[in-house]
């Protein structure tokens, strides 16, 4: 029996004539888009599958969209989804997934750090029955030591905190079957941390190791502050452990204050020592004030997330969708109900 009946259905056209969709969200990547398209096109031509490339423009202003519009007139199997403004990568990926028609969907960054040449191995794993093929970074070329260490620590912390089994060292580079995509699109969150949502869906998963390449051209759009915000989004979206930590910190502070007070009373009664009033008071007030502010900040993160979800704004808005018609062939929606912004 075929491990991928959905592929057979796609071939027959019952779902879609497109067997593979490759989604490329981008923001101001004109320097690298031509090389990205050329490398990807060469790989897709070897697969003997009908395909489409879904480019999602997350508010670019450097001529990226104009380049792709010209490409639409020259090549089949290309779709350009332009968002009304910059909504962020998580929203752009959601837009791409919702506009993809393939029996399998691959997420690929435009900067070529994730090599398109790994796609055939992903497709083989999918044909063998995997609904999700996650690509795990064996090495991270072109990244600073600080970024590698912080990523290593963060992914392991998130894996321990989250009830969803988020594989360490995996990013957005992955393949999903139509069944996994359908399940993913049922999740109603507006504040979308995609790596966590992929894991929450579950489904039979295959992990493939690969070596991440340096950025082919241009500069990263991810500052350390943006990465920190994304990390906080991941933790607060998939774990309430920080709230329990705040409770434990408050209890420890209260216990420490009680022990300190008892020690002062004991020394005064037993040895007649003077109580160091102002310094001791200031130290305790500063410590307790810090604990309270940390706790309030954590509560604010969760309350703010609840507030953003309650407004029910769309994850993104689409300016327009353009496509070149029929799917590409190898040689042989509307705006989703925009992110937390």
From TrEMBL:
Its EC number is 2.4.1.-. The keyword DNA damage does not apply. GO terms for molecular function: glycosyltransferase activity. It comes from the Bacteria. Residues 21-181 form the Glycosyltransferase 2-like domain. GO terms for cellular component: plasma membrane. This is Bactoprenol glucosyl transferase homolog from prophage CPS-53. It comes from Achromobacter aegrifaciens. The lineage of its organism: Bacteria, Pseudomonadati, Pseudomonadota, Betaproteobacteria, Burkholderiales.
